[in-house]
């Protein structure tokens, strides 16, 4: 059975008997998250990949701002194989919420975290013997075996052991640390979207490591390399598992160039309400400072969604009454828009769409992020917890 979830600041998570659905706290803004679209995105991506290849859904950064636990429940229901996060607290929160499938921590841990990892059956990435030793010790204390995934640096030059050290590193783990099992081995691309030559070099380098391990009978069960771009552009990098992040949410790293698979779409509509409509006289300012000085008598609306809610200074347009209107000033808790040229009737407390569709108009994360020299995944993660998330099925 699907677990019902609502997720917001007042009652961070309510599961099952869903009080927040009976008594939702009305707010002046909200994010609507379409779980039916998440199912569609997942199944489209599932079909791009051979059936015996596993899918890891990457849920770091609060599931790219979509709310980690509710997204995890939905993906567990879709039969996702594994979840990927980067912080212990993310992995722990998933376990605490009852998630049973493997959780892989894709960034280094520190020795202090080893016992938490072991007790909660979390699978950390490892590129350091000191960590292996700490894990082995805590695993032996708990009478458990800890699974790890060894990361290989094939050119990103961030984390990972060097390719030439791989065989010795893994051999040593088997010889010296009996409570640690190398379940996986992986690498990460440096610029898969734009640099084909370098990506292919990275794939070749990783293949070489796998071949050497195979010869020594040391190849871990699960090899993986592809993130979203790898999934779409390099089928030869799918190996035994793919790590699906941004495309699962229907977003792109690229700046609004549409090359997502057909049918993969964003899940999110970000909405606010008009809290005030007023006319600012010619020559007067609207809001703080002199960022907006009315050239003529100007009708403005103030929408209750500001940079305290995740909107950045520089945001250009929003949708009201199915039309684009320009943003003329910003403050902590709201934005001011010029509605002088708006056609049709609007009134206070009407809805404005910040991201998403209204009528025939649409503003995407990619478009909005470009205004502020940012990316969709960066922007969406800035939305703060006081904006309630409403999950729905179509
Ligand atoms: C974030 C991350 C991913 C997901 O990347 P997307 O491009 O969003 O799919 C995959 N692998 C690792 C190691 C990551 O840190």
Throw out a few tags for this protein.
394 residues, alpha/beta, TIM Barrel, Lyase, Ornithine Decarboxylase, Chain A, domain 1, eight-stranded parallel beta sheet, 12 helices, 28% helix, 25% strand, binds pyridoxal-5'-phosphate, Ala_racemase, Ala_racemase_C, EC 5.1.1.1, Alanine racemase
* N- to C-terminal distance: 18 Å
User: Could you say how many structural domains there are in total?
Assistant: 2
Just name the CATH architecture of the largest domain: Alpha-Beta Barrel
Q: Radius of gyration, rounded? A: 24 Å
Helix run count: 12
Extract low-pLDDT stretches: 8-20
Short description:
Helix content is 28%, strand content 25%. With 394 residues, the chain is of the alpha/beta class.
């Amino acid at each position: 059975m699907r677990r019902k979830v609502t997720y917001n600041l007042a009652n961070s998570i309510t599961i099952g008997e869903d009080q927040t659905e009976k008594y939702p706290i009305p707010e002046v803004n909200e994010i609507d998250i379409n779980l039916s679209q998440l199912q569609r995105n997942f199944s489209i991506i599932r079909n791009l990949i051979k059936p015996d290849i596993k899918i890891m859904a990457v849920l770091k950064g609060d599931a790219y701002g979509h709310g980690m636990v509710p997204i995890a429940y939905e993906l567990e229901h879709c039969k996702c194989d594994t979840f990927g996060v980067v912080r212990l607290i993310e992995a722990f929160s998933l376990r605490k919420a009852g998630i049973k499938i493997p959780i892989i921590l894709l960034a280094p841990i520190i020795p202090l975290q080893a016992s938490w990892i072991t007790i909660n059956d979390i699978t950390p990435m490892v590129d350091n013997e000191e960590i292996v030793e700490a894990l082995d010790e805590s695993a032996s204390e708990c009478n458990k075996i800890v699974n790890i995934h060894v990361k290989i640096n094939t050119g990103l030059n961030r984390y990972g052991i060097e390719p030439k050290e791989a065989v010795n590193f893994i051999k040593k783990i088997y010889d010296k640390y009996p409570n640690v099992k190398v379940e996986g081995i992986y690498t990460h691309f440096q610029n898969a979207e734009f640099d084909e030559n370098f990506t292919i070099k990275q794939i070749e380098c990783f293949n070489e490591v796998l071949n050497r391990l195979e010869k020594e009978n040391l190849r871990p069960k699960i090899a993986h390399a592809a993130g979203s771009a790898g999934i779409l552009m390099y089928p030869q990098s799918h190996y035994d598992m793919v790590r699906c992040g941004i495309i699962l949410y229907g977003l792109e790293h690229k700046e609004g160039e549409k090359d997502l698979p057909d049918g993969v779409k964003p899940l999110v509509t970000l909405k606010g309400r008009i809290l005030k409509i007023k006319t600012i006289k010619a020559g007067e300012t609207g809001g703080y400072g002199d960022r907006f000085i009315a050239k003529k008598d100007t009708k403005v609306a103030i929408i209750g969604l500001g940079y305290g809610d995740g909107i950045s200074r520089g945001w250009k347009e929003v949708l009201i009454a199915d039309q684009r209107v320009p943003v003329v000033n910003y403050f902590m808790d709201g934005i001011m828009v010029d509605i002088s040229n708006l056609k049709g009737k609007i009134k206070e407390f009407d809805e404005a769409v910040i991201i998403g569709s209204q009528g025939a108009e649409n503003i995407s994360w990619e478009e909005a992020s470009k205004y502020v020299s940012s990316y969709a995944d960066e922007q969406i993660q800035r939305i703060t917890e006081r904006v309630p998330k409403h999950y729905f099925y179509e």
